[in-house]
Amino acid sequence: MRATIISPYPYISSLGPRLLSACLRRAGFSTRFINLPVQSCDSHVPEGILQELTELTKDSQLIGISLADNWLYLGIQLTRRLKKNDNVIVWGGAYATMNPEDALAVADAVCIGDGEDAFMEAARRLDAGSSLAGIPNLWLRGEPYPELRTIEDLSSYPLPDYGPDGHYVYDESQGRILAIEKLADYQRYFTPAPPSPGQAGPRYVYRILTTRGCPHNCSYCCNKVIKDIQGVGIRTLSRQYLERELNWVKESFPEVTYLSVEDDTLIARKDVKELVSLFHDFGYRFRCLLSPPYCTPELLEFLSTHGLDFCQVGMQSRHPRIEQMYKRTGVNRNLDMTLKFFRERHPEKIVSIDAIVDNPWEKPEEVVHTLRYLAAQLPPRGEVMIFSLVFYRGTELWEKAKRDGILRPDYHLDTYYWWAQDRIHYTTLLFRLLLKRKYIPLRLTLALSSAPLVRFFEQAVFTSYLFPRLLDVLHGQRRSFRKALARTRRLAREMLQEKP
Length: 500
Prior knowledge:
Elements: E1 2-7, H1 15-26, E2 30-35, H2 47-56, E3 62-66, H3 72-82, E4 88-92, H4 94-98, H5 100-104, E5 109-111, H6 116-128, E6 138-140, E7 167-171, E8 176-179, E9 204-208, E10 211-212, H7 222-230, E11 235-236, H8 239-252, E12 256-261, H9 272-281, E13 285-290, H10 297-304, E14 308-316, H11 320-325, H12 335-344, E15 350-357, H13 364-377, E16 382-388, H14 396-403, H15 426-435, H16 442-448, H17 451-457, H18 460-474, H19 476-497
Parallel strand pairs: 1-2, 1-3, 2-7, 3-4, 4-5, 9-12, 12-13, 13-14, 14-15, 15-16
Antiparallel strand pairs: 5-6, 7-8, 10-11
Helix pairs in contact: 1-6, 8-9, 13-15
């Protein structure tokens, strides 16, 4: 019995799908793993690539496709192209977990929550010619909603599968799907590591996960919905498991010098110091997300002196009303202390602060409140990462948008790229000026955020016409992205009119 797993995400790591492949291989099944990195919101796959996919999957009885919202219509296209009478196509990932009924209108089955055990059991039953009905976490079309189970011991499962045998990647520069023949082939797809003194030659980033889940309950975030569905919070991988993975990385990818820790809250681990010491002992610098409630000066000092190079801090807003709307009042506790720590004790560290814009319920003056807070608090190498608010099904803000009648029918295609929006707010552009404070005086940015100017430039003639046209000229990626998005919206309308 052969299975194929397809991951459409831009990063070669694709941690969840690789774990599924590893589990199947350990159970004795033959697998193919295909990285199909397609831009978010773009459902277009060249006909030649679809033909290659059809050929690669022709002998697979089980095909798994991992999907997040923005890749929904790509998933529909792939499923309709690859579906045969003698195969089963299963959707997994965040979209399938949060929208299982909609997913079942297209896929044969949907994996809800943890997929490792469900996928292995599906492979065993297909191999034995048995029915897939009744498998926990696997909802089969026409069958009752399944029993849901969660994995208690993540460390008992294998390391992510990087092959190289049976692994493929769509290389857009060559316009075809290439076989990974040796582990070194991955280097062309790895993210380059930040330069480090004394290191010569190319160096790369390895993405690693040490926990699964998030402790917070933010009103906009899909993690809260998934946590409610699964009924479980944070689960951790053991130090022994991670040491085994790092040994494998050191042996397999000697050019890797940097770890990108993909956890939502690495520092929520009770053994975070021991784990960071492990990174340090292996000689790896690292980046991670910092959650302010878990930050203390002593812990931040330890991280900073044991390889922390870059940290991302979720703030989203600093206005009290919007913090409350986002359920972040408690989460942003210690934010002032965290930023002060990096300003005064480690100004050389890069600290990136997340801020949400394009909130339809947020007033311009509330956005300016956050802007002015950051202008006063950012460390010397502080950055601001701006994300447009998007609505994920089942979140509190999705429900609110639905009640208020502002939820678009194809909300799955809403993107968090601020520069790709139909409307470009003046207050968003002020954040961009703040980022350029090395070249644009901070006093000028603050002067431009005065109430009269904000009221004037937030008029529709600017936000809906002039600013978008300006970005069409200045931001090269905007036009190509919006063209792909318009194509996907057309395809979505056609697909939704067709019978699955």
